[in-house]
What we know:
Layout: H1 4-20, E1 23-26, H2 31-44, E2 48-54, H3 60-73, E3 77-81, H4 97-115, E4 120-122, H5 135-143, H6 148-151, H7 156-165, H8 191-206, E5 209-215, E6 222-227, H9 230-248
Parallel strand pairs: 1-2, 1-4, 2-3
Antiparallel strand pairs: 5-6
Helix pairs in contact: 1-2, 4-5, 8-9
Amino acid sequence: MVHESILLxxxxxxxxxxxxxxxxxxxSGGVDSTFLLHEACKVLGDQAVAVTMxxxxxxxxxxxxxxxxxxxxxxRQVIVERDQFAAPGFADNPKDRCYxxxxxxxxxxxxxxxxxxxxxxxxxTNFSDTKGYRPGLKALAELGVVSPLKxxxxxxxxxxxxxxxxxxxxxxxxxxxxxxxxxxxxTRITERSSARSxxxxxxxxxxxxxxxxxxxxxxxxxxxxxxxxxxxxWQIVRQSSRAFMRWAFAT
Length: 251
């Protein structure tokens, strides 16, 4: 049974969404944005539109899962392709890379919202995201992007609990971070290294890992992962690591 305090937060979220009138939901297909899109459609109906960005740092499987979700539920979805390397400073990978990237991407969503006469852009930032170093949040605030989950005080774990209650397939989906976060600050990101990171993440996903992280550091790439079934999964890694690394880091 869901605790009453969590249900109260859900009611607060829905009340807030109702006041917005019409929204473009930045929808990646992850746990947070899926729950937010579900709630927005429940409250606003066809006045809620999913906007999915096809980016260098997002594996194709994530885009396909986002498309499948919207198709299965009859949700209007717009897919826009953006080149993150066009964002100032993205390739140089400074410590505030996320600020510049979010500024670039959500500025373009603002233009899209105006074109479709949508009142607000909303995103899946939750209350848990307010902890730690998050330069991207500054960009969202500057652009007027609304973060209803955060404003309702919903944490990541609470969103998973409510997602299960609502019957969403993403309630136990592993968290996925932008592939650009795999590169240490100051390490230049190139299209080649970005593609390598995608191949690594795709392979880890196929092996059904709970979470994964991979990095490309010079000519000595390193990877680390946390498997769902550690013994069997690590045995797979040991047995196939050489062939895998040749494939993932092929030119």
